[in-house]
Request: fold
Amino acid sequence: MKDEATQTGSNTKSDTPDNTATKQPRKIELSLYWLLTKGARGLVQPEAHTLYRESALHTTISSLKHEKGIYCISKPDLATIVHQYQKPFHRYWLATDKDRIKAINLLNYYRTKRGLEKANFPAWHESSEKAA
Reply:
């Protein structure tokens, strides 16, 4: 007896390929992308919210440090103070060239899993200068 609940038609395929290229990026992937894109200028919470709807940049930065071993430098950005008595947001950027390389590798790992080609970011400075 044929199972009527399982219908096959022109819109159903049993051999559908993996659709990883259509998956949405993870929040950590977006954070890495924008940290790398912003480079030595760094990223601050309001910018992250505008760019990719990040509501807790400090948590993502902490996750990068404790779970992935990617360190960022954090400094208060006084330009983010809008109201009197408001504390400034912190601006984050990758601490060293080693952290930058780790970030690129992790970003490309996530991109590859989604079926995208690897991203390439130019160096932030001349080889004779130190990282941020």
